[in-house]
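Standup notes
- DV: blocked on the single-chain target, sequence here:
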Amino acid sequence: MSIPSIVLVGAGGHAAACADVIEQAGSFAIAGMIGTREQVGTHVAGYAVIGTDEDLPRLRRTHAHALVTVGQIRTAAPRVRLWEVLTDGGWTVPTVVSPRAYVSAHSRIAAGTIVMHGAVVNAAAEVGRNVIVNSMALVEHDVQVGDHCHIATAAVLNGGVRVGSRSFVGSATAVRQGVAIGDDCVIGMGQRILSDCAAGTTLPEAARRT
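- DV (later): unblocked, structure below
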């Protein structure tokens, strides 16, 4: 029995990593990637860049599924825009979970989110739409992650942490249990977050919040 096709919207390094997760999961066949005009005709991780955003309505006639595979660090705006393009355009945006990740049956993962290799989403955690839970990240019990966030590689969200929409938590950052991070925050890599961060907070790499 054939598996459904999926179009990856983004054609950079994060898209290559997403392609590997999708290959390992085996639930979709990758039809190609969407990139810039300059990227059309090139290949990423062995997959052709088959068009730009402008080609999505045409591609929707032959493919039902798509995933936002643009990365996110300083701003979630590109991922939010592409999410809206896909949902407004009638695409089905699935949840993708690596078979090398652990997602508790007692957690909830919303549409468009990808949980990458080695990540853990524990019991009673809730992860919103269009989120990246990157390789080796830990989303502990009772954590809430809003829409359009990126929980980067090896980041640790301890029990009861709340992360607002469109926020970024950098690689190897550890967030103390019960701490709240507001909307639109950018938390650099390697930090210890021990108290709440107001909406719009930006903390550089390796700064310490006590």
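- Follow-up: The first helix runs from residue 13 to 25.
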